[in-house]
Specification:
With 180 residues, the chain is mainly α. Helix 8 runs parallel beside helix 9 and helix 9 crosses helix 10. The longest helix has 16 residues.
Amino acid sequence: MLCLSGLSVALALVLVPGPTEALKEGDCEVCLTFLGKFYQSLEENQVKFNSDDIEKALVKTCKDAKGKENRFCYYIGATSDAATKMINEVSKPLSYHFPVEKICEKLKKKDSQICELKYDKQLDLTTVDLKKLKVKDLKKILEEWGESCKGCAEKSDFIRKITELMPKYAPAAARARTDL
């Protein structure tokens, strides 16, 4: 009799669902943002919500991704140089209109690196003093704009290049700086 009750307790523990791994505030920032924008683009472009079409659209979107979003694409296997292929872990649930949060929770269980991705803090170019930034940060600004500074040897060269290109890439910041 004691053996039977022990067996029923063990069976009950197996059948009772454990605590779910809900995402905490700030978790999976890149995953949530990227997949949210991707889902919106699928709806706007009226893509058929089947796994194959979503997968093709995801690979196409990932070709243009840069920075942390490109790293996310690499982790799920949507880039040509990716070592693993978990792309179906995204395309299948999206084809059933699964919430993005749930997809990211699932991906976190498969590969925790996915939820460790965070966007870099954006500099407010209207108020930041470029002279106080490190050269590394100045280079990052130019890189985000898709520009480079050939022949720049000193910090002042990078600052000059940024202020020269600011009207093109950050017109609001350029206007605010001329008002100062």
